[in-house]
Amino acid sequence: MKKLPPSDFAQLREKTRLVLAGRDPADSYGFVNPAIVRGSTVIYPTMEDFLARKARYTYGTHGNPTIDALLAALNTMEGGAGVLVCSSGLLACTLPLLAVLSAGDHLLVTDSVYRPTRNFCDKMLPRMGVEVSYYDPAIGADIATLFKPNTRAVWTEAPGSQTFEMQDIPAIVVAAHARDVLVLMDNTWATPLFFDSHKFGVDISVQAGTKYYAGHSDVLIGTVSARTPELYKQLNEAWQALGVIIAPEDAFLTLRGIRTMHVRLKEQMPAGIEMATWFESRPEVARVMHPALPSDPGHALWKRNFTGASSLFAIELKPVSMKAVGAMLDGLVLFGMGASWGGYESLALPFDCRAYRTATKPGFEGPTIRFHIGLEDIDDLKADLEAGFARLRAAA
Ligand SMILES: *Cc1c(COP(=O)(O)O)cnc(C)c1O
């Protein structure tokens, strides 16, 4: 297997690059996959080498070949200046905020933000002297009206992972960059395969790699990609200063997930849309929240900027008791009830975001449920839900 120079590698199409990236059999005794290299200490042959830190790897927290293999694949997908990894998706949200914000700064955060990120913004950032305010996810170019002289960054997430509200990322980027304000985005829903965040100007793009990258519900990992070398340097300095590292086993498993991510999402996207469309036809359902559906208020934005959809969406039921919802969900055989998503298995989860939103209150009248569609046969999933709706009606 001949090793391609970087310029030739860059000419390959994305699918091919995802198969090749971070893989050099010469480095792994000829085996296809990179070796899992564990280690803290690196031994230097001589004192001179040690004093000059003359070695490809210098210490476990400063780089590791298994993690580098993952970073190569991540860079290929994200298309930015550099990627960093950490031990959870939540940390991938909080660390870049720590890296770019200073005391006295103001941060704007979408009201549809992933709730634990919101928790960090409410609990930790004020203690660091950072002022946080929440904005309507649909604000678009009007974000400019919320900028203060000390606004340093805007946090975006599109679509939000409970209500699936879309955001006009390009409009927010234009307004922010006109004021030297950074745009950060939690791009977990679309993944870089379906939303090329850096191409649209997002400065720092975050993934809960726990979801579709890892893809098998067996790894916790976060990734952070920087659009420019300057930002990458700033993030990297924060990573080094904080001592952030991941286990090589997790790097290996995430890399293995990434090799098949195209294939999984190619199956899960139409399955998600088909299930969402099916829910729309159900008499028990008031509304389906999925930006790939033409009926969704975010559909035009999704169609304009996204090239695909993942398989996570939500429904609002017509008003019914939580007891009836429990009867529906508890009896499901194929849908597990649990947080997280992006694995090969289907999930269903009740949620209520009305209690904690501050900038806007979604006007739900009935209970809301989030679904993740896995790789099961869709007719089996429909039959399971059909029986669930029968239990819901019987308990209503
Ligand atoms: C799950 C999730 C995270 C956090 O990922 P963890 O690995 O579970 O910490 C962040 N953002 C979004 C949108 C998520 O769904």
TrEMBL record:
The keyword Transmembrane does not apply. InterPro entries: Cys/Met-Metab_PyrdxlP-dep_enz (IPR000277), Cys_b_lyase_bac (IPR006233), PyrdxlP-dep_Trfase (IPR015424), PyrdxlP-dep_Trfase_major (IPR015421), PyrdxlP-dep_Trfase_small (IPR015422). It holds the Pfam family Cys_Met_Meta_PP. Signal peptide: none annotated. It catalyses: L,L-cystathionine + H2O = L-homocysteine + pyruvate + NH4(+). GO terms for biological process: L-cysteine catabolic process to pyruvate; transsulfuration. Belongs to the trans-sulfuration enzymes family. PANTHER family: CYSTATHIONINE BETA-LYASE-RELATED. This is Cystathionine beta-lyase.
